[in-house]
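ugh ok fine here u go
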Amino acid sequence: MNATGYRIALAAAMAAIGVATVASQDFRPEGPSWSLSGEASFSGTAAWATSPQYGSDSALELTLKARRPGIRAEFSGTADALTGPDGATAAFSLERAYLRWSPGPVVVTLGRQIVNWGNGLLWSPADLFAETRLVGLSPERVGADAIRVALPLGALGGVEAVAAPASDPSDGSYGGRLYGYALGSDFGLQAARDGAAAKTTVSAAVKTDLVLGLWAEIAYAVPDGAGPGDGSLETVAGADWSIGSWFFVAAEYRYNAGGARDAAEALEAAAEGEAYPARHYLYADASAKAGDFASLGIGSVVDLGDGIASVTLSAALDVEQDASLTIWAGYSSGSMTSLDGNDAASFGMRLALAF
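structure:
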């Protein structure tokens, strides 16, 4: 943050943004047919904030898919050109790159994939092989390099085994899941050992849809060498509700018994990649359509124990056919990672053009 106080710096006009879709096409060699498809999108975002002062992101995302009976492959990656007060840089991220083979009822998936075992929005202790982060205005799960084998058990359940190996096999993660559907609810029981973190975690998840959508997850992690009563408990409970397709609201509470108790512990956890290191959190999100061409949204994350809150307001408008503009403004009363009380404000916009 600028030493003279909080000020929002002006940035250059945002780069043109487009979203282009490459139409699906069929490729038919001899034997079983292949179906090839691809999507390419180019997006640009400009943001102003009190810290850092400004920034922009021009991103090119490419997704390729190939199918034939019993086999599916997908590749998705993003190249970003980033600017900010310290200059410009480029980055590349590989979101998904996997091959899926289905010899009968067994499904084997190899490569970077999203192993989604939980139902949580922003936090999911049942996701033992996936992390969730806020990307733009929405939570998104991150892929993992893994080998996944799934086998159905009857019409409403199944088992899975997952291995995420490392260069040293003892540092990899290995686990399994049993899941099913009964009494109008989805159930899951998971367990995994994380060699790099030297811990074993057991978790359970349930989700049901009544008038409200309800979900709950619980996980218990025991470090190597510790007794059964020396582990750490994490729980999540949430609910969502909608009215047709024009209004949606959701809320989620997280409790982490092993969370940081002070700023020093929070910084240590943040250095290990934990974006929400404290113990008690609340996440809420709501969106509504305002006519045929506009929508409004609000999202908030609150650290209940430390009294830190962030809120983001957004508006999206279809300005022309196949063109939309999203504008958002945010405010935070402190840092979720360091637990300091320095407030910050931000503003951003994103334009999307479809061809």
